[in-house]
Design goal:
Structural class: alpha/beta
Largest sheet: 9 strands, mixed
CATH topology: Stationary-phase Survival Protein Sure Homolog, Chain: A
Oligomer: single chain
CATH superfamily: Survival protein SurE-like phosphatase/nucleotidase
Number of helices: 5
Low-confidence stretches: 1-12
CATH architecture: 3-Layer(aba) Sandwich
Distance between the termini: 50 Å
Length: about 270
Amino acid sequence: MSLAYGEVVASSRRLRALITNDDGIDSPGLWALARGARDAGFDVVVAAPHVDASGVGASVLSVRDGERTRLHARELPGLDGIPAFAVEGHPAFIVHSAGRGWLDPKPDVVLSGINVGSNVGHAVLHSGTVGAALTASLHGWRGLAVSLDTVWPPPEQPGWDAALHVLPEVLDVLLSGPDGLVLSLNVPDLPIADIGPLREATLAPFGAVRIRVDQRTGDEGDALHSAFIEVEPGEAGTDIALLAEGHPTITELQPVTARPGVLATR
């Protein structure tokens, strides 16, 4: 790992990586990312929602029993000796808890994914995978969201190896950046030989898909019905366009910030 250790942690210990996701503790993509982090030399701990929590953004909701949120120790395939927990809470809740006393030592980086499906465009606002990485920044940690651009419905065996192939290069970028850096990585689900070079991408105007919502009245009363609408690749240089060309894409995301001057024009 290319990192000036004196700037971040004492050189006497390895960097600690919290691995989480929004697809849940039973997602093979989560297990693959944990293996990738372990193989990169991180001290790894895994904590992910006990059920699928896709689309929750940076929600810190949890299932509370009084002041308690339950967690369940797990043993994950191919990850012998790595502590793992299923948490009855959303991804950002897990990251926030890690920074408020749960984990000791605290993580140095948060790696979130590997998500089934891309997280692209300004619609990353809604992604629980991205929400976890952004929450890491609030604690001063580096965060990386990793997503695999699969077809839908996804294949039985998504190409996790494609994402792991790109991961070391992106970890170098992440670790050489400043504290609080947040990156989003999207990788096309292609054979490794067919994957193009890593490209920095701008965010597309929305996302890879849009949803049309209609109100309908039936026997059980009114309801909102959702239908997916595909979006064209769009402008060159955006994450959607570059993925369509076979390139993994990397984008730096900015956490919530204040912009001064709102009263200056009054």
